[in-house]
Design goal:
Chain A: This is Re/Si-specific NAD(P)(+) transhydrogenase subunit alpha. The complex is a heterodimer of chains A (about 525) and B (about 475). With about 525 residues, chain A is of the alpha/beta class. Helix content of chain A is about 45%, strand content about 10%. Chain B has a six-stranded parallel beta sheet. Helices cover about 60% and strands about 5% of the residues of chain B. Classes of the chains: A alpha/beta (about 525), B alpha/beta (about 475).
């Protein structure tokens, strides 16, 4: 099959769906690759690089559409491009079928099969083709870089001869892939990062990236996650609480990165005008949801706005495209994985298997029919995880009270045990002969010493400890020695055997311990 | 002949040396000295006791000691480090058996003395232990009998228990928990019968009571340990260690020897604490471990979805080449495959490339406590990069690559996520938090506890199938 990538036509789009690297991998699947001249130039891949990778460079868009069996693209097709599709041809690109019904109908009418990269189901197996995630990852990174570009200070706190610099405080709203990527980038630049998400179960992921999770104390704790790992809209009361929390943060933070999106809905307004007004001059807001209307009241898509109090609001919608090389590499790999699944025999023949969950889910038109929306996938995305209520830090008094209570109960227990032990001793003393009690004192003290000494032994030395105690338990040999000189033949024989086996134990135990310990060495 | 005073002084010295020896094991450097304390202490104890007053039979004693020493030295020299658990278990059985013999002998001597007293004839010239018994008052003799019963019972349980533990660890006895029909009722029955026999014996019945008592205790030891699964063997070995100590202490009471009492008590309490520490590490109730069975499941375990994805050596190698921090989690499988030196080579190579490499050791990795540390030490892995669970568990989230070599249950997320799992609540190494996890494993089988491991199905897990040593050797040339 011939797989062709045309030049992207949307304004400002620098990405390309085929890289020389992915082309080589596609050729291994038995496919032939085509590219429109100059398609990769904005992403840093010139035509020669493609030619070196055995890709045929085609001069015009029309020629490419005519020649290719499978057209791969980044952005959804323009009506011009859709016009060029023919029956039996396959188009793989972002498509947004829910918002683009007219386009969907157009493609169906053309008889083309369309695979929407944005419809790849969120299951483990399909992660390698999850282009939304790979692009969101880049967007999150780039958001921090853009913020840094517009922010007049360091991210990291420093104490220098020229004065002390406080660390930048970054607030990330929405901890999806983009949010987590932003958290990771901001923390590694040295900023103090806080993050919020309506899905309490992501608190762990947030903390694992090194940010502080802003925990919302909400009684009627609503779980904001919906199947598929995306967020669901929240109730008005919850939203009120949430805004209250943000309002408290606004004067404190220097950079806000908002990434809150709800599938199929306009972006929720979370950073209101009064919050922007409360921020310090020079602060930066990066709104990654700008394309869907923005999380911030002031956001204007594709623009950099400065508020009256000097807060910069960035509403670019093309973050991945701003890093075209990186995003092309990742996107091309996503596409390549999709084609790998479509070419199960690796023989260059595409088998559009509609029984496959992933292929079925991503296909929006096929064989003259609209196949969107797909049936729910057979495999659930993520097991429903229970939100973990965060334990409240006990206050100082509570802590103290707990400690005294623990101390009291411990004292009670110890005194109780001592009393019982003492009573038992008295009883024993009543019946036992004096000689026994003398030995008994020794016994009890030895037990105590044993307990005290062993607690300190380091874990890695437990095996040597066992070997040593084993060797020492060979002390039983003394008993045999005391008896071996007996007048009775039976006793002598029993004692002799005991001496023999106890010696094996002693010598074996000590030698093995020495062998073991000789191996411990410091680097 | 040395005087009694000398012998007592030696006993004090030996006791102090033994305590120093155990205490010295608190760190690796001191430990080497600590073993010498133990050896010297034992030498002093044996020498001064043997040449103390009232000891005879040197013609038999000395050859026996020499033969025993030779056998012991050969055993210790020959054993592979991976066979350590078996050896320790086997050696415990000797102590148990010796305790039974010594206790029997003590009773035989008591009977001789009593017989002589009853004959009312001229007080015989008793030698050795019998001479001591002859000086005892009647109530002291009753206590002596109680001590004899205890010595035999504990010694006999230790003996058969250790033999079975040895068999299970060496793979000669099936590792699965197995009991006769009747289960613990049989054990309880045998214990009650032992008590009856002990009472009979105390009220003057013949020597046969002690023989039957030993037989019953042998059975209890056998049956008790047979009922405990292989995964719990570390606890069992340290528990038997404790028993052997208590047996020695009981004999010490019988013979009126303080050194035996002190040493026995030291060993007994140390073994008990070790067992306790290990049970705590597994979040298991000590009693339920001892009574066998890996707990009963409380409902169906959660279904696992997804698939195990395999990876080959070159895939692992490229991930390792890209990684900055690597954590290796070894388990029993590493011991079985004798892969420790291959692991050590890999670690050396990775460290030479400037990567941070550490080991995470779960408290119950392997088949006895500290098992992994010993193996890694044998392969010359520096011990300061070998960390225990609590030290490293929070670092997994910031680790690039985790390699799990032959461990299963100790990295099973079900312990934390699935309340119905048989190992629910057991602290485990949170390897799944790392960016990538490679699991070196022979096949798709389950671990010792026989339960599924959801880790293998996680998105960031890749299965590196094959014998651990061969896999690692295949990996080595690919890592740069």
């Amino acid at each position: 099959m011939k797989i062709g990538a045309p030049k992207e036509t949307s304004r400002g789009e620098a990405r390309v769906a085929l890289t020389p690297e992915s082309a080589q991998q596609l050729q291994k699947l038995g496919h032939e690759c085509l590219i429109e001249a100059g398609a990769g130039s904005l992403a840093g891949f010139d035509d020669q690089a493609y030619r070196d990778a055995n890709v045929t460079v085609v001069e015009s868009t029309q020629a490419l559409f005519d020649d290719a069996d499978v057209v791969i693209k980044v952005r959804e097709p323009s009506s011009e491009e859709a016009e060029r599709l023919r029956e039996g041809q396959t188009l793989i690109s972002f498509f947004w079928p829910a918002q683009n019904e007219a386009m969907l109908e157009k493609c169906r009418a053309k008889g083309a099969t369309v695979i929407a990269m944005d419809m790849v189901p969120r299951i483990s197996r399909a992660q390698k083709m999850d282009a939304l995630s790979s692009m969101a990852n880049i967007a999150g990174y780039r958001a921090v870089i853009e913020a840094g570009n517009n922010f007049g200070r360091f991210f990291t706190g420093q104490v220098t001869a020229a004065g002390k610099v406080p660390p930048a405080k970054v607030l990330v709203i929405g901890a999806g892939v983009a949010g987590l990527a932003a958290i990771g980038t901001a923390t590694s630049l040295g900023a103090v990062v806080r993050a919020f998400d309506v899905r309490p179960e992501v608190s762990e992921q947030i903390e694992s990236m090194g940010a502080e999770f802003l925990f919302l104390d909400f009684d009627n704790a609503q779980d904001g996650s919906e199947s598929g790992g995306y967020a669901a809209p929240s109730s008005p009361e919850f939203r009120e609480k949430q805004l209250e929390c943000f309002r408290a943060q606004a004067p404190d933070v220097d950079i806000v990165i908002t990434t809150a999106l709800i599938p199929g809905k306009p972006a929720p307004k979370l950073w209101l005008e009064d919050m922007v007004a409360a921020m310090k001059p020079g602060s930066v807001i990066v709104d990654l949801a700008a394309e869907k209307g923005g999380n911030c009241d002031l956001t204007r898509p594709d623009e950099r706005v400065v508020s009256d109090n000097g807060v910069v609001v960035i509403g670019y919608t093309d973050f991945p495209s701003r890093m075209a090389t990186q995003s092309s590499l990742l996107y091309a790999t996503n596409i390549r994985h999709m084609l790998t699944d479509l070419t199960p025999e690796k023989d260059g023949v595409i088998d559009h298997n509609m029984d496959d969950d992933v292929i079925r889910g991503a296909t929006v038109t096929h064989a003259g029919d609209i196949t969107f929306p797909p049936p729910p996938p057979k495999v659930k995305a993520i097991g429903a995880s229970k939100p973990k209520p965060k334990e409240k830090e006990p206050t100082a008094e509570e802590k103290k009270a707990l400690e005294t209570a623990a101390f009291k109960s411990q004292t009670k227990r110890q005194v109780g045990l001592l009393a019982i032990g003492g009573a038992l001793m008295l009883l024993l003393g009543e019946v036992a002969p004096a000689s026994f009690m003398q030995h008994f004192i020794v016994f009890v003290l030895a037990c105590f010493i044993g307990f005290q000494v062993i607690w300190k032994v380091s874990h890695s030395l437990h095996t040597p400890l066992m070997a040593v105690t084993n060797a020492i338990s060979g002390i039983i040999i003394l008993g045999a020695i005391l008896q071996i000189g007996s007048g009775s033949a039976v006793v002598t024989i029993l004692a002799a055997i005991s001496v023999l086996i106890a010696t094996i134990n002693i010598v074996g135990g000590f030698l093995v311990t020495r062998r073991m310990l000789a191996m411990f060495q410091k680097s | 002949m040395l005087s009694q005073g000398f012998v007592s002084a030696a006993a004090i010295a030996a006791s102090v040396l033994f305590i120093l020896s155990l205490g010295g094991l608190s760190n690796q450097e001191k430990a080497k000295r600590a073993v010498w304390y133990g050896i010297v202490g034992m030498g002093v104890a044996v020498f001064f006791t043997a040449f103390g007053p009232g000891i005879g039979g040197y013609w038999l004693m000395i050859p026996m000691i020499v033969i025993g020493a030779v056998i012991g030295a050969r055993l210790a020299g020959k054993v592979e480090m991976t066979e350590m658990p078996q050896l320790v278990a086997a050696l415990h059985s000797f102590v148990g058996l010796a305790a039974v013999f010594v206790a029997w002998s003590a009773d035989l001597e008591r009977r001789r003395v009593l017989a002589a007293r009853a004959a009312d004839g001229v007080m015989q010239e008793f030698s050795a232990f019998a001479a001591l018994v002859a000086t005892k008052a009647p109530d002291e003799l009753t206590f002596l009998q109680i001590e004899v019963v205890l010595g035999i019972f504990i010694g006999a349980v230790t003996f058969t228990g250790s033999v079975i533990a040895f068999g299970k660890l060496a793979g000669k006895v099936d590792g699965k928990p197995r009991q006769f029909p009747g289960g613990h009722l049989l054990n309880a029955g045998a214990a009650v019968a032992s008590l009856v026999l002990a009472v009979l014996y105390l009220s003057g019945a013949g020597f046969w009571t002690l023989l039957v008592l030993a037989a019953l205790a042998f059975f209890i030891g056998y049956h008790l340990i047979m009922g405990i699964g292989g995964a719990d063997m570390p606890v069992v070995v340290s528990m038997l260690n404790s028993y052997s100590g208590w047996a020695a202490a009981a004999i010490g009471f019988t013979l009126g020897n303080d050194l035996l009492i002190v040493t026995g008590a030291l060993v007994g309490s140390s073994g008990a604490i070790l067992s306790y520490i290990m049970c705590k590490a597994m979040n298991r109730n000590f009693v339920s471990v001892i009574l066998g069975g890996f707990g009963t499941t409380r409902g169906p375990a959660a279904e696992i979805e997804g698939e195990q994805v395999a990876i080959d050596a070159s895939g692992v190698a490229s991930a390792l080449n890209d990684a900055d921090s690597v954590v290796i989690v070894p388990g029993y499988g590493m011991a079985v495959a004798q892969a420790q030196s291959a692991v050590s080579d890999l670690v050396r190579k990775l460290r030479a490339a400037g990567k941070e490499v550490r080991f995470a050791i779960h408290p119950v990795a392997g088949r006895l406590p500290g098992h992994m540390n010993v193996l890694l030490a044998e392969a010359k892995v520096p011990y300061d990069i070998v960390l225990e669970m609590d030290e490293i568990n929070d670092d997994f989230a910031s680790t690039d690559v985790v390699i799990v070599i032959g461990s299963n249950d100790i990295v099973n997320p079900a312990a934390q996520e699935d309340p119905n799992s048989p190992i629910a609540g057991m602290p485990v190494l949170k390897v799944w938090e790392a960016k990538q996890v490679f699991i070196s494993k022979r096949g798709q089988g389950t671990g010792y506890s026989g339960i599924e491991n959801p880790l293998f199905y996680k998105e960031n897990s890749r299965m590196f199938y094959g014998d651990a040593r061969e896999s690692l050797n295949a990996l080595l040339p690919l890592v740069d």
